[in-house]
Amino acid sequence: MKWYSRTNKVSSISSQHLNILLNFPFTLLCQKPPESIMLNTNTHLLLPLLIFSPLITSAPASPSNQVCGTIQPPSNFYQIYEEEQFTNQTSGLGPFFPSGEFSFATQQEAYNVNERDLIAYFKNIPCPPAGRGPYNIEFNFVPDSRYTASGNTRIDVFAINGDLPSLTFPGGEVSEYPTWGSTNRQTGSLIGTFTLPTGADARTPRVFFINSVVCRPTINLRFSITNDSPAAGSVNYFSGPQAGLRIRYGC
């Protein structure tokens, strides 16, 4: 905020005019304003400040400082299978129109076998200067009667290095096609862990902060039931525009 002032020669203002200027705010302060502007008991106390408001200026905020955006849901979810017969297969888990929801689903059987991990694919992320950090990976849990969870619901989140593995289909079409084997070769470091609620706790909305990441135009993540317990576990949540997995930036 900058203050601007102007200097004037006192001799150029008569004593009568100077007395009026000096007492003008005090006069307004002491007078009862018309009922049409008496919005509350403090309205008349603001009048002297409003009179001199042109003397106070501030620079407009930079647009980059005003950005607070959400990318939700991801562009796509894929489920990859550890089972031998499905190792080279993947399945898309949405969106389910017209709701635009995806199925956030991951599971494993007891003793960490027959795992089905989840791949989330975010694209067209506005990195600086179009956006500003931090870029937070979050799970916005909103109670939903369709949500199911059992056993171990603690989920590890891994970064996936580079673009998702792809497959060229007959006709020349190339599409993302992550499988268990191809994704293992690109799975990077563990970036966070969170536990989705079960039972009565699932009736309480909450936001799980997973981690902040360096912005890239495309961010791919892998979700897996943790292997630190031999217990079986599974979750299935409908992730859409108002709930579920998201990236928040500049907030």
Structure description:
It is a single chain. It contains 3 helices and 17 strands. It is mainly beta and 251 residues long. Strands 4, 5, 6, 7, 9, 10, 13, 15 and 16 form a 9-stranded antiparallel beta sheet that branches. A hairpin with a 3-residue loop joins strand 6 and strand 7. It is globular and about 45 Å long. The relative contact order is 0.23. The model is unreliable at 1-15 and 24-64 (pLDDT under 50).
Shape: globular
Number of helices: 3
Mean pLDDT: 80
Strand content: 35-45%
Note the main sheet: 9 strands, antiparallel
Number of β-strand runs? 17
Helix coverage percent of residues? 10-25%
Helix-strand sequence: EHHEEEEEEEEEEEHEEEEE
Q: Compute the gyration radius: what is it? A: 30 Å
What's this, in brief?
With 251 residues, the chain is mainly beta. It has three helices and 17 strands.
